[in-house]
Amino acid sequence: MMKVTVKLFAFLGERLGPAVEIDVPKSVTQAALKDAVLELDPALEATLANSRVAVDQEFVNEDVLQLSEASEVALIPPVSGG
């Protein structure tokens, strides 16, 4: 296990702050990453289910992520504007 910092945006950032530190293995699924954040605030389940994961400033489509402690991880929920 290693600690990674996950940057949070929009509603997620409002609820938990701009970033959280979580423990994950080097090889982690997107679902497990979201579940680790969900443990901090179970009310975020619907938002996290629809959030995109970005690693090193690029959205990822792979289910399994290969991370290091230096990886920049972000969770970006759906946003709307007008």
From TrEMBL:
Assigned keywords, A-Z: Nucleotide-binding
Molecular-function GO term, any one: nucleotide binding
GO biological process, any: Mo-molybdopterin cofactor biosynthetic process
GO cellular component entries: molybdopterin adenylyltransferase complex
Pfam family of the protein (one): ThiS
InterPro entries named in the record: Beta-grasp_dom_sf (IPR012675), MOCS2A (IPR044672), Mopterin_synth/thiamin_S_b (IPR016155), ThiS/MoaD-like (IPR003749)
Protein family membership: Belongs to the MoaD family.
Name listed for the protein in its UniProt record: Molybdopterin synthase sulfur carrier subunit
Organism: Limosilactobacillus fermentum
